[in-house]
């Protein structure tokens, strides 16, 4: 494959530092380094200088934090997307956004190819490359981990020593970490033993339930048409809202998940996740829907939710079926407006109240104190209702 200029998804870490140099050596091409800020809290200062020192002709940094939460995290929230019952899709949601802007930067800088550092066993290679095929099929895709003869972190460090590439990585890496505003994920290394309990000092966003405060914290989360909009009455931008919730819930040890999941490529993988703010939002959103959403609309959305999670996890964000999902989700959220109160305490988040100007809940109708009949509900009607429902259950 002949390429002249490549746009590389670049973090400045070991893998992408090696890839940058390898692309120049292997293809004799120019490299534009591209970095997406999705809230990973890595030091972005100095990255352009580091990239150029490693051979890049330019380094483009895009702040995508607000877009990430607004258009990706909150859409998954409205759709109740949870993969295999536990994973809130933090990494999977970030990849299509990163790929979208990478393709955009590639076009803006005259590149004829894009490159990524995803490994040949993971989901991210699929997510990146399906996005590229949908958004910029004219760009060639280079996946070094599927091409080169480097097979390990040891090989990468040796490569850096050979070519004088400045990195601070060492051979001691007990697990890999991916962080954004939605979550922190840990996998590989010592975590590949599914019986081994994660080390407490591994966690970043949450403290243990044992170390959490002895007094609970109550917060009120406001929603507008299914989208979180405020905390304790204060309107916040999407990124600011999730950042604050991460801090509040993380302090109480909320949002840890340890699971073995099924990767799209056919492997099982153990992942440990911290998603404090996202965990609270999913709980609160469900509570908001409980008083504002029509029963059968909710049930239809719930039937779609596992499929939505699967599409996101497998990398089909820019697919025709995903467009249909978005339309259905948006249509379901028109009345999901109001406030939900949540108590945070010792690793738990518990809903303690909900209210809405669009509430479908009628306390006068629902009360058990008055069993008399009225124009809307006559208990005597239940006799025929039950008889008809039971027709097919009668034994022949």
Explain how this protein is built.
This protein is an alpha/beta fold and 396 residues long. The protein folds into 2 domains: 5-84 and 91-163, Rossmann fold (3-Layer(aba) Sandwich); 176-293 and 335-355, Argininosuccinate synthetase, chain A, domain 2. It contains 12 helices and 14 strands. The protein has helices spanning 14-27, 47-53, 65-78, 90-108, 124-135, 153-163, 238-251, 276-292, 295-314, 320-332, 363-366, 381-389, and strands spanning 5-9, 30-37, 58-63, 113-115, 140-142, 176-179, 184-187, 217-224, 227-231, 234-235, 256-262, 268-274, 338-345, 348-355. The strands form 3 sheets. The chain has a 5-stranded parallel sheet, with helices on both faces. It has a 5-stranded antiparallel sheet with strand order 10-9-8-13-14. Strands 6-7-12-11 form a 4-stranded antiparallel sheet, with no helix packed on it. Strand 6 (176-179) and strand 7 (184-187) form a beta hairpin. Helix 3 crosses helix 7, helix 7 (238-251) packs across helix 8 and helix 9 (295-314) runs antiparallel to helix 10. It is elongated and about 85 Å long. The protein starts with a strand and ends in a 7-residue tail after the last helix. 37% of the residues are buried.
Please outline the helices and strands.
Elements: E1 5-9, H1 14-27, E2 30-37, H2 47-53, E3 58-63, H3 65-78, H4 90-108, E4 113-115, H5 124-135, E5 140-142, H6 153-163, E6 176-179, E7 184-187, E8 217-224, E9 227-231, E10 234-235, H7 238-251, E11 256-262, E12 268-274, H8 276-292, H9 295-314, H10 320-332, E13 338-345, E14 348-355, H11 363-366, H12 381-389
Parallel strand pairs: 1-2, 1-4, 2-3, 4-5
Antiparallel strand pairs: 6-7, 7-12, 8-9, 8-13, 9-10, 11-12, 13-14
Helix pairs in contact: 1-6, 3-4, 3-7, 4-5, 7-8, 9-10
């Amino acid at each position: 494959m002949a390429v002249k200029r490549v746009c590389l998804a670049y973090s400045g870490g070991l893998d992408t530092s090696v890839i940058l140099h390898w692309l120049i050596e292997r293809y004799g091409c120019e490299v534009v380094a591209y970095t997406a800020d999705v809230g990973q809290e890595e030091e972005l200062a100095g990255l352009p200088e580091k990239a150029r020192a490693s051979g890049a002709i330019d380094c483009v940094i895009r702040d995508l934090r607000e877009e990430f939460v607004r258009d990706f995290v909150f859409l998954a929230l409205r759709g109740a997307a949870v993969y295999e019952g536990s994973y809130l899709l933090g990494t999977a949601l970030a990849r299509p956004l990163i790929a979208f802007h990478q393709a955009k930067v590639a076009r803006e800088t005259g590149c004829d190819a894009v490159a990524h550092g995803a490994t040949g066993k993971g989901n991210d290679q699929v997510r990146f490359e399906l996005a590229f095929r949908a958004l910029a099929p004219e760009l060639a895709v280079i996946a070094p981990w599927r091409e080169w003869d480097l097979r390990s972190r040891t090989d990468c460090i040796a490569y850096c020593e050979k070519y004088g590439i400045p990195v601070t990585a060492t051979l001691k890496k007990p697990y890999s970490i991916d962080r954004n505003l939605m979550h922190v994920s840990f996998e590989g290394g010592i975590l590949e033993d599914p019986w081994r309990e994660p080390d407490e000092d591994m966690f970043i966003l949450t403290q243990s339930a044992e170390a959490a405060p002895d007094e609970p914290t109550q917060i009120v989360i406001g929603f507008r048409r299914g989208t979180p909009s405020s905390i304790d009455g204060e309107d916040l931008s999407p990124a600011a809202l999730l950042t604050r919730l991460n801090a509040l819930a993380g302090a109480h040890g909320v949002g840890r998940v340890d699971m073995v999941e099924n990767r799209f490529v056919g492997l099982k993988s153990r992942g440990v996740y911290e998603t404090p703010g996202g965990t609270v939002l999913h709980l609160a959103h469900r509570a908001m829907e409980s008083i504002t959403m029509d029963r059968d609309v909710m049930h239809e959305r719930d039937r779609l939710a596992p499929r939505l999670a699967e599409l996101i996890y497998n990398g089909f964000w820019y697919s025709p079926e995903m467009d249909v999902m978005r339309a259905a989700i948006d249509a379901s959220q028109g009345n999901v407006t109001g406030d939900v109160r949540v108590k945070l305490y010792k690793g738990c988040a518990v809903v303690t109240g909900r209210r809405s100007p669009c509430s479908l809940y009628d306390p006068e109708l629902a009360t058990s104190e008055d069993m008399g009949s009225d124009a809307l509900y006559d208990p005597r009607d239940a006799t025929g209702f039950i008889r008809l429902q039971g027709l097919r259950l009668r034994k022949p």
